[in-house]
Recover the amino acids of this structure.
């Protein structure tokens, strides 16, 4: 931990604590790298959304050759996955409280692996494949994603916002892997589609079609290896910690790690510079414990352990203060609790009374609790809005409808770019290239967009990315008929631009409505593409059947343009929250 972080942390404890050296021990660095590696292994399970567009032409050809009893378009797989993934994310915290973090991760991994494995038999019936490869796979990956991020990335060195960017960029790398596996298993000899039926190009080679079920078998094995490596690395670290507690004596627990993470926030540091004094008052301690003999540059393990014990005492005392008698209240120095934006000055912050207490992430909840307000709250000062209050604001509904419109653009691009390109490009390997490069583009663009939100502002970043989505979707519609090679380039850039949708969903609500209820507000915004996905397969089939592919992608350009106009017209009454 850095010196600056220890200085802020010492202000929480009410005592001056010397700074530890910047470089951790070799064992600590190795354990952190191991947890980051474990998180990357399991975060590489991107789900169906990122690589399904590369798999869709093979499934359509398979169902054309093997007429099922009940036909359902394979696009419903992507819709079912998107719906159940959000349900899995919402329910992951409840499952964790009952069975623990590691058991939750293992449970999600088992569901993911079994859903892919059973798809080997379920592929014969589209409805069964929607259930296994769509609903079950989505729910399992939704359970795993937040738990792996919590277990692994919270231990990343540096505590910078690059950790969030790493979590956002980890999933496309798995999509790249699964696309390569699909090509090598199903079409290793790069055979071209040779049948045009109902506006769709299809494969008729019997040998190629017969390999479609085997893809799910190979994919299940690859997924099991990734899940096993990730869970095994995290479990081995926890097991080593339980067997050798003396090696971990000087390290911080999860609670202290989260407090230190909150302490590094720039907003908190700004408040600290303005206050020039401890905001939390004095803790219970004797006068002999207060001394200024902290001139050393490093801190000993025993002193660090004392720091951890004090932090636990402070944390428990703050969240659940004991009932003091009248004599103890008179003898004990008064300690002022922080005033929070979302609370009345005369009431304070009651965590048990907050309806969204269990829905807010650990880091966000602690940050929202510990960051004080330097000046008294005025009536004009912006405050954090609860979900019920957010629903009454114009900003939310503009943001919600923008997410709904961009969700349509994202759905048709990620799932149909290959089928659209097959109209002019028959080479399957060339159409694999934009998918592979698109995954790399997402992995690069998401960290850059996160940093742009920090260095510029969220509003400008979202508007720029949304405008890029509109321009590139329009160019895709034009270049496919004029210069097919440019279509590949525009497809790759469109993957990168659509990373702005991720920023819109996860950062814009917290910047507009505050951090306290950010988890619940993000889920509210995410309901927009969730509802849209229920109708997307029907919309796609209707537009392609009646108007053609060009009009389908033109609709993507129009919806992104409407979303851009809506975001531009947002009344920035709370513009300070976006910057």
């Amino acid at each position: 931990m850095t010196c600056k972080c220890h200085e802020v942390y010492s202000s929480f404890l009410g005592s001056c604590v010397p700074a530890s050296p910047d470089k951790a021990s070799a064992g600590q660095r190795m354990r952190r790298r191991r947890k980051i590696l474990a998180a990357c292994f399991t975060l590489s399970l991107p789900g169906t959304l990122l690589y399904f567009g590369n798999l869709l032409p093979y499934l359509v050809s398979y169902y054309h050759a093997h007429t099922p009893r009940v036909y359902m378009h394979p696009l419903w797989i992507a819709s079912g996955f998107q719906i159940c993934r959000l349900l899995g994310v919402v329910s992951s915290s409840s499952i964790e409280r009952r069975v623990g973090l590691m058991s939750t991760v293992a449970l999600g991994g088992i569901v993911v692996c079994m859903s892919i494995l059973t798809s080997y038999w379920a592929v014969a019936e589209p409805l069964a494949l929607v259930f296994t490869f769509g609903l079950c796979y989505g729910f399992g990956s939704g359970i795993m994603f937040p738990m792996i991020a919590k277990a692994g990335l919270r231990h990343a060195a540096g505590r910078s916002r690059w950790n969030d960017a790493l979590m956002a960029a980890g999933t496309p790398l798995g999509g790249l892997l699964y696309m390569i596996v699909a090509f090598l298993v199903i079409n290793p000899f790069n055979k071209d589609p040779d049948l045009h039926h109902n506006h769709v190009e299809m494969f008729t080679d019997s040998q190629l079609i017969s390999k479609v079920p085997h893809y799910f078998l190979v994919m299940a094995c690859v997924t099991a290896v990734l899940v096993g490596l990730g869970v095994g690395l995290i479990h081995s670290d926890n097991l080593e910690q339980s067997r050798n507690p003396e090696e971990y004596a000087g390290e911080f627990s999860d609670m202290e790690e989260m407090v230190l993470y909150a302490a590094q926030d720039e907003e908190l540091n700004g408040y600290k510079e303005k206050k020039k004094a401890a905001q939390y008052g004095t803790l219970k301690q004797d006068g002999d414990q207060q001394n200024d003999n902290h001139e050393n540059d490093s801190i000993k393990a025993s002193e660090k352990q004392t720091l951890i014990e004090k932090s636990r005492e402070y944390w428990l005392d703050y969240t659940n203060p004991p009932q003091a008698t009248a004599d103890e209240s008179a003898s004990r120095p008064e300690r002022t609790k922080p005033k929070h934006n979302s609370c009345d000055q005369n009431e304070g912050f009651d965590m048990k009374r907050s309806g969204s207490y269990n829905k807010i992430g650990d880091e966000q909840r602690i940050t929202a609790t510990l960051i004080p307000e330097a000046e008294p709250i005025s009536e004009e000062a912006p405050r954090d809005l609860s979900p019920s209050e957010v629903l009454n604001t114009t900003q939310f509904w503009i943001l919600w409808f923008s997410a709904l419109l961009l969700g349509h653009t994202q759905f048709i691009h990620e799932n149909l770019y290959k089928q659209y390109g097959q109209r002019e490009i028959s080479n399957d390997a060339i159409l694999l290239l934009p998918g592979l490069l698109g995954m790399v583009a997402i992995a690069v663009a998401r960290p850059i967009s996160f940093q742009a939100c920090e260095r510029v502002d969220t509003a400008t970043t979202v508007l720029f990315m949304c405008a890029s989505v509109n321009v590139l979707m329009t160019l895709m519609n034009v270049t496919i008929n004029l210069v097919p090679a440019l279509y590949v380039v525009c497809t790759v850039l469109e993957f990168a631009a659509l990373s702005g949708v991720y920023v819109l969903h996860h950062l814009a609500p917290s910047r507009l409505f505050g951090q306290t209820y950010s988890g619940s507000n993000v889920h509210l915004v995410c309901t927009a593409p969730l509802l849209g996905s229920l109708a997307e397969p029907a919309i796609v089939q209707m537009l392609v059947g009646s108007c053609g592919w060009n009009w389908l992608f033109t609709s993507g350009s129009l919806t992104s343009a409407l979303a851009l106009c809506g975001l531009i017209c947002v009344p920035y009454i709370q513009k300070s929250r976006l910057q």
